[in-house]
Specification:
By secondary structure, the chain is of the alpha/beta class. Helix content is 47%, strand content 19%.
């Protein structure tokens, strides 16, 4: 059974229609696959797409000494770079007529993704299972797991 069929069955059981899809991107090797899945769903359901990138706050890395650069400047540069990458992603991947907004947020990724979904009234969150997290993922749990625990809507997690 395909996703559209499952959702049609769910609609009979008062399942909410998919109108807004929040897609969390991290520009890892999995980003294209995640965005492709989100575009496919947004196209099929004529939903609005929102691509979000979260610049992780560097404050909890304050113990690390990085000569000649402040964390504020680093965060600002990361934000500018993310905006450019999001624009390029939209330009290269989005079909004509698909409604899409982009946003760069600053904070703790899982928290910001969930906050954005709540604020925007997202019907679905689409995200990948793996990003650039390394040892921190092992110690704190993955961003995807944290989003799954507190999301206000269903979450579609795309694996590698």
């Amino acid at each position: 059974m395909q996703a559209a069929e499952v959702l049609k069955v769910g609609e009979k059981n008062k399942m909410h229609a998919i109108q807004k899809i929040l897609t969390a991107v991290d520009f890892s090797g999995q980003t294209d696959k995640v965005v492709d899945a989100a575009i496919s769903m947004a196209t099929k359901f004529e939903a609005e797409l929102r691509l979000v990138f979260v610049v992780e706050e560097m404050a909890h890395y304050a113990w690390v000494t990085v000569p000649h650069i402040s964390f504020d400047i680093l965060e600002e540069e990361m934000g500018k770079s993310a905006e450019t990458k999001l624009e390029k992603l939209v330009e290269e991947k989005l079909p004509a007529g698909l409604s899409c907004k982009t946003e760069v947020r600053k904070g703790i990724p899982a928290r910001e993704i969930v906050n954005c979904a709540r604020k925007e009234g997202s019907s679905l969150i689409v995200m990948g299972t793996h990003g650039y997290r390394g040892m921190e993922k092992v110690l704190l749990g993955s961003v995807a797991e944290q989003v799954l625990r507190s999301a206000p809507c269903p979450v579609l997690v795309i694996n590698r």
